[in-house]
Each structure stands twice: as C-alpha cells, then as structure tokens.
Amino acid sequence: MKEELMKVHGLKTYFYTRQGIVKAVDGVSFEIGKGETFGLVGESGCGKSVSALSVMRLVPDPPGKIVSGDILFKGKNLRITNEDEMRKIRGSKISMIFQDPTSSLNPVMKIGDQILESIQEHQELDKAKAKEKAVELMDSVGIPNPSLRFAEYPFQFSGGMRQRIMIAMAISCNPDLLIADEPTTNLDVTVQAQVLDLIRNISRSDNVSVLLITHNLGLIAWLCDRVAVMYSGKIVEHANVEALFADARHPYTKALLECIPRLGEKDTKGLRVIAGRVPNLIDLPPGCRFHPRCPYSVGMCAKEEPEAIEVASGHSVSCHLVDKSMKGK
Amino acid sequence: MHALLEVRDLQKLFPVASGVIFRKVHGWVHAVDGVSFSIGEAETLGLVGESGSGKTTTGRLVLGSIKPTAGKVFFEGQDLTTMTKEVMKKARKGMGMVFQDPTSSLDPRKTAANVISEPIEIHKAFDQHEKEERIVELIEEVGLGPEHLGRYPHEFSGGQLQRIAIARALALKPKLIVADEPTSALDVSVQAQILNLIHNLQERFRLSYLFISHDLSTVRYISHRVGVMYLGKLVELARSEDLFSNPQHPYTAALINVVPVPDPKEMKSKMKEILRGEIPSPISPPKGCRFHPRCSQMKPRCKEIEPELQEIGKDHYVACHLE
User: Fold this and answer.
1) Which residue numbers of B have CB closer than 8 Å to A's CBs?
2) Which whole number is the average pLDDT over B189-202?
3) Tens-digit pLDDT profile for residues B24-53
4) Residue B271: its chain A contacts at CB < 8 A?
5) Min Cα–Cα distance to chain B from A272, Å
6) Does A289 map to a domain?
7) What pLDDT does A328 receive?
8) Which of A80, A179, B189, B309 has the fewest Cβ atoms surrounding its Cβ within 10 A?
C-alpha cells in the first residue's frame, strides 16, 4: 500500500432500538492509502453503508452511536473530533456521493446555486470567482453547455447528469477522500460505466482516494485496488483485488462469487445458492456469524469467533478453517 | 417450434398533454414502436434494454393490461387486441405475471394464502376444497411450506415474498409468465435462488417466459433467445449464445462491453471503450436509425433511413445498415 490516508481500527457502530441493540458495524478495521481506491462489498444489511457514515460521523444519533474504535484521518482521530471541526472536514477533506442523486439535490434550487453553496461553504471566493469555478467543475465532469445548464433545475437533468453534478460538488474543494456509496445503482449500465469512468479519472488525475461501497463485485473488479468483504457487521476477507478474485478463501466470498450469473458461460446445473438468510443483527449467532449458512462449518465455528488470519501478504481471512480442511475444496 | 405467443408490429404511443380541464396533446411518447417477436412453448425470451427502451411497456401490452396503438398480439392463436373484456378475462388465465418489487406488488393486509388464492377466486377456477389443496401445492412448489400460509407480507424476506408472488402467478396453471425485473430488487445470493426456481418451474410445467430485465448477465443465464431493445425498437434478436458471443448490432456490442464482471483482468481490457451519450427522448426519437447519434460506426444513410430487422443468420435478426 502507498502512504496511508485513513486508518479505521476496531470500529463499532450500534443502533439502540426498542427491539434491542442492532450491531450494524461490529469491529471493522481497514486502511485506505493515498490515491487508492478501496472497496467495501457485501449484501444489504452487512454494515457497509453504516461504516461509511461512521467515517463521516453522520450516523443519526439517536438511535445510532459509534461505540468504540478509532478513525484516523491524516493522523487525526475523527471519532473524538468536535462537531465544528467535523463540519469543516466534511465536504472539503472528505466528501461523499450517495445512491440516489435525485433525493440528494434540492429540487427547487438551481443546479449552479447548489454547486456554489458547496464551494462557498469551504472557500473564501467572491460570487463571480465561485461561479467561474462552478462552471469549470460542471465542464470537468462532462456536462455539455455548462454555462447554460448552470441556471437549470434538477428535474431538467437526467439521472446520470445529476450524479455528475453530485460528483462536481463532491470534488469542488479538492478532497483527499471521496466516499461513493452505491453511486451507480440507480443508473443504466452504459451511464453507470460513464460515471464510474469519471470517478476513476478524478482519482487518478488528482490523486484522490476513493472508498467505494457497493454490492456489485463487478464494479469492485473494475475500479478497486484493495477490497474488504463484509458480512453481518464484520469484515470476513480483506485482500488485493486480484487476490480476492483469483484466490478467495472465505466460504462466504467464494459462495458470493459463484452465485453471480456470468456473461461468458451458460451453466446448466443452476447457480450456486447460499442456503438460509442473513442473520438478524439484533440476535446474532454465536461464534462465526456465517456458520449457520456455511457448508464447511465444524463444531468450533459455533463457539469461537474467528480472528483475522493473514494467509498471504495483504490478504487476511476471518475463518477457522482457512488453512485446514477447506484446502482443495 | 409452435409459437405460443406472437407479437406483430406492436406500437404504443402515450400522449404528452398539459392543462387540467382542457387537455392539450402536444406530442407522443414512442414507448414501443413496431416490435415483432414470438415465444415458443417452454421457451424463455429475454428482453433487455436500458430505462425508456420500452421493455416494460411491451410486457404490459402482451398481458393486455394496456391497449396497443397498433399491431397484434396472438396468444395461442387468438388475437388479444380485438377481444372484448369478457373473452379477454378468459384468455388471461393462461398468463401470469411477476413484478420487480414484491413488497409493493403484494397487499400488506393479505396473508400469503389470500394472496395466492386471489386469481383463483377471480376466475372461480376451483371449488373450496380444491382451492385449499391447490394453495398448499403452490406454496410447496415455490419452496415454502404450509406453515407460511397464514403469515403476512411483513413477516417475509424479499426473496420469500418473490416466491409468493411466483406462486400467485402459477395459481391458474398458466402457459406464459411475464416476469418484469423479478430479481432486480434482491441481493445476489437471493437472486440466484429465484433464478433457479424460475428455471426449475419451466422444466416441471413447460412454462414459457417473457423475461424482462436490464441485467444482461441474468438474461443470459435464464433465456433461450434474447431481444435487445433501444428506444422502442428491437435492434437485435438472437439465440442467447449467439447474441452474447457474436453481437451484430453496435448497441448490443456496446451494452455487453459495459457489463461489470467479477474479473479484474477482463474488466481492465473491457472498459476501454465506453458508449458515450445517453438515450434520447422517446418523444422525438432521432430520424433514421435511432441509435445513430451514439454509434461509433455511423454512415450517412443511418441518419436518413430506418433499418429493418433482418435475418442475417439462423434465428439471428439485426436492424442495422452496417454489413
């Protein structure tokens, strides 16, 4: 890994609800290097989005709370940073784009004014200069006729164009880290490719680190340098992207890779299915959280929670069986 | 193959109107514009396309839930478009449908048993005793048990709800099921379960499917033949293997090229050429070939003349001027 930008260590974010404590993120650790694209992948409810919100300190409180852990960003611990300072970091040092650009934009405010707002919040620029910069930004994210479209409203933009606007706002203050939470889930495949290509170009040309959160392993394969697979609030496998796809070790990662239909081949035997369902986050199974669904599970899996074991340089797996009986299977 | 469903030159225009009392029509959305295909017995035809390509409207036209502006839909040799409501109701027994989001397609105040029995009651297909037997049979067919029958939708997971929706679609022993994005709202591991179920049901009951999806990998997996739609037109129609290994239309090729696959090496070589631009408005589709403004191989005549769907190989149809 290159020079470290962010290090998250032992992060636990719980939600205190009437039904009980929801352990959405339960001891997650990862690092993001400078200029690196790091992926968090998992199914719904695995805690990938809550991890991102925790990093931004945007977990709704109550009911949510970061219970423990450290979020070190350029040496500063964001978990104990006060709210005023956090406000300065959000949008300028770390910025975020979300799944649905329609609900992230104000429908009754001109697109240009919304970009201006994010520029003027963090930078001392007069209106004319700021406007010039906003138009430049719109141009750089691929909006045709930016000076004309500056005065239009969100409904006059297509979904892909709105996401480009969100990206323009996110990069307006040259952040060090861009968090993209399912940035293309609502977009068509051709537009998805365009938006992701844009994010990749920004990351490369401005050396911006990206935290990409997605359920789509294909996007991880395309964009990420390193990746962590999450299941029920825990990271189960953590590796370089090449290692993860060529040599997945955790039974959950393997199963996840096998249950995706592929374009190239047609398998008549049917797709691999992961039996059962994701456990309830209030009432988690003891031991390894995946054991009730795991085909390799042995007695120990139900009793002891597995620690992360490094199987190769930069490749760690949280499974009791990783170097034993699973070999060759 | 004997065609169970045949669709000929189907067209649907939706008016674009303004005004509250005096509606003034000032344009038409060309949602589906001259689409023809057929589906054989025990065959799955996949329809892929991006949003606004007209795939969902095509599904609704096939079901007869909306009337076409022009064109014909033949189901088991009968023309659905000229039928009266009464005759239509009978013909519809042969068709079922499954929607994208089971949480909104199932009534939250009905138990699973009520949901599944609804089509039986509408058509008065069985007597009380037979109905109860049929409901148990159906819920087991989709991989759930009789103990689930008394539960309400909020007690089920998304995958289970989709199973109930499939059981409802199967209630009257249909021959054709129109499935509109049936797995798009589900997680990947659950998606695999539902796809396997859809596949197994076809083998058991010789069902035919019109499978509508924007996800090429899913369509590739489930379909025998695939049609690619763009702005209300079918641009390519071929057997699944042929379409994906040897796409002829530039749009199909571009679409296949941008599908993310879980393989870092393949992705690095694939994503070099990304289709630019977005789908134009279906209110005023481009003249000539509708894809020409985004096509990298555009020739002058593409701007003027609309290409027809032509057979270029066995069961392989393409609407493109390029050789």
Assistant:
1) 50-51, 157, 159, 187-193, 195-196, 199-200, 214, 216-218, 220-222, 240-241, 244, 254-256, 258-268, 271, 274-276, 278-279
2) 90
3) 888 889 999 999 999 999 999 999 998 889
4) 193, 197, 222
5) 7
6) no
7) 41
8) A80
Domain B3-94+174-316 sits in CATH at 3.40.50.300
Which residue out of A157, A226, A263 would a mutagenesis test of the B interface target, given it has the greatest number of B Cβ atoms within 10 Å? Answer: A263
How many angstroms separate the CA atoms of B165 and A297, rounded?
33
Residue A1 has pLDDT above 80, yes or no: no
CB-closest option in B50, B188, B216 to A263: B216
Q: pLDDT tens digits for A179-230?
A: 999 998 888 888 889 889 999 999 998 899 999 999 999 999 999 999 999 9
Query: In terms of residue numbers, what domain contains A117?
Result: 103-172
Q: Nearest CA of chain A to the CA of B51: how many Å?
A: 7
| Residue A212 shares a structural domain with residue A272 | yes
Q: Do A263 and B271 count as a contact with CB atoms less than 8 A apart? A: no
Query: Could you give the strand order of the β-sheet that contains A177-181, starting from the edge strand earlier in sequence?
Result: A94-97, A177-181, A209-214, A37-41, A226-231, A234-240, A315-317, A309-312
Question: Do strands B176-180 and B208-213 pair parallel, antiparallel, or not at all (unpaired)?
Answer: parallel
Among the partner-chain residues A44, A217, A274, the one whose CB lies closest to the CB of B262 is: A217
**pLDDT at residue A264 tops 70:** no
Residue A201 sits in a domain of what CATH number?
Answer: 3.40.50.300
* Contacting residues for A223 by C-beta, under 8 A, at least 6 apart: A37, A39, A196, A199, A200, A210, A212
Window 221-240 of A, Cβ < 8 Å to B = 221-222
What is the total count of domains within chain A? 2
Q: Which amino acid is at A177?
A: L
Which of A190, A194, A271 faces B50 most closely, judged by CB atoms? A190
Q: Do A277 and B157 touch (CB under 8 A)?
A: yes
pTM for the structure as a whole: 0.86
Provide the pLDDT for residue B33: 92
The reply to whether residue B278 touches residue A216, judged by beta carbons under 8 angstroms, is: no
Q: Which of A85, A89, A127 is nearest to A6 (CA)?
A: A89
Residue B264, phi then psi, degrees to nearest 5: -55, -40
Q: CB A197 to CB B271 under 8 A?
A: yes
Q: Looking at the structure, tell me whether residues A197 and A64 fall in a common domain.
A: yes
ipTM above 0.90, yes or no: no
Contact A27, A284 (CB under 8 A): no
A231 band by pLDDT with thresholds 50, 70 and 90 = very high
CA distance A110 to B75: 50
Are A253 and A244 in contact, with CB atoms under 8 Å apart?
Answer: yes
**pLDDT tens readout for residues A78-121:** 999 899 999 989 888 999 998 888 888 999 999 999 999 888 88
